[in-house]
Amino acid sequence: MRIGVLTSGGDCPGLNAVIRSVVHRAVVDHGDEVIGFHDGWKGLLECDYRKLDLDSVGGILAQGGTILGSSRVQPAHLVDGVERARGHVAELGLDAIIPIGGEGTLKAANLLSEAGLPIVGVPKTIDNDIASTDVTFGFDTAVGVATEALDRLKTTAESHQRVLIVEVMGRHTGWIALHSGMAAGAHAIVVPERPFDIDELTARVGARFAAGKKFAIVVVAEGAKPRAGTMAFNEGGKDIYGHERFAGVAQQLAGELEKRLGKEARAVILGHVQRGGTPTAYDRVLATRFGWHAVEAAHRGEFGMLTALRGTDIVMVPLAEATQTLKTVPADRYTEAETVL
Ligand code: F6P
């Protein structure tokens, strides 16, 4: 069998672990040939690739980023993208393509699959918002990075008796905010699923100071917004790929809370540090299992599917189903967290 693998969209700790696993399972166990397309779909569309053998994936398990590179170019962005992809798949004699990516990548994968290309998807995102899988690799690493940052920020907040508003990633969902906030014992968690009320937030943080505490930590997901009409708010705009370009919710909250509470407030934006660096053991294992199962699905001819974690099992889920909704933070998870804030 000849398999093409690519990584597309925002990078994520664990991508290299998937690539390594695909190569090991395919080359060693099945005697397949594997090629890696450079910079995501762009590599497939421009026929830019290299052969992947055991040597080329040696030592990459613990490496962050992706040895193949990534880009936000999706086939749908190019008018003749699907036909070009089809042409290159035929020219290269590919029996399967394994794209590893998030929401946008999986939608593109579904488009190509519906056009008849042999696709087996692997989900990734630090945001953990892909509905078909219980967990995505990268999430555990991102939560670990954010939790460590929050632990560190507590000591400086306390020294200066400040309110620190810490912005974590999460365009549409607050999984990183919820988990890191719970793990670090934050004093308020603000998520996109639940537009915040600035009066309530001020009261919550104010009550802490009134009780004699000297500092407060608020974790906010980058995509969080105020309840309509409760606060002047700049939502930002869109980048050239149609992704939200946020105007900085932490900065805006810091200004508002400082004014309302009469306490010094600072915004800290963790940004891409959450995506960089070595994956945790959990993410390496999940990524490795996804890669292994993607190769198996290709050998069974199970195309148009996506690897997913359900409980402790890896199962295959239709790509079409996987790209329909996002996995948001359920209200009861937020309620649980509120008790311990
Ligand atoms: O989808 C993952 C994610 O980390 C989002 O939380 C974030 O909004 C986005 O990627 C930022 O991506 P970039 O700045 O690389 O386009």
From TrEMBL:
Binding sites annotated in the UniProt record for ATP: 10, 72-73, 102-105
Site annotation Important for substrate specificity: residues: 104
InterPro entries tied to this protein: ATP_PFK, ATP_PFK_prok-type, Phosphofructokinase_CS, Phosphofructokinase_dom, Phosphofructokinase_III, PKF_sf
Residues reported to bind Mg(2+): 103
Domain of life the protein comes from: Bacteria
One GO molecular-function entry: ATP binding
First-level EC class: transferase
Location(s), subcellular: Cytoplasm
Binding site for substrate: 125-127, 162, 169-171, 222, 266, 272-275
Pfam families according to UniProt: PFK
Residue ranges of domain Phosphofructokinase in the record: 2-297
EC number per UniProt: 2.7.1.11
Pathway: Carbohydrate degradation; glycolysis; D-glyceraldehyde 3-phosphate and glycerone phosphate from D-glucose: step 3/4
Residues annotated as catalytic: 127 (proton acceptor)
Span of the signal peptide: none
Essential cofactor(s): Mg(2+)
GO cellular component: 6-phosphofructokinase complex
Gene3D superfamilies recorded: 3.40.50.450, Phosphofructokinase domain
Biological process (GO), any one: canonical glycolysis
Keywords: ATP-binding, Cytoplasm, Glycolysis, Kinase, Magnesium, Metal-binding, Nucleotide-binding, Transferase
Protein function: Catalyzes the phosphorylation of D-fructose 6-phosphate to fructose 1,6-bisphosphate by ATP, the first committing step of glycolysis.
Protein family per UniProt: Belongs to the phosphofructokinase type A (PFKA) family. Mixed-substrate PFK group III subfamily.
Subunit structure: Homodimer or homotetramer.
Descriptive protein name: ATP-dependent 6-phosphofructokinase
Upper lineage: Bacteria, Bacillati, Actinomycetota, Actinomycetes, Kitasatosporales
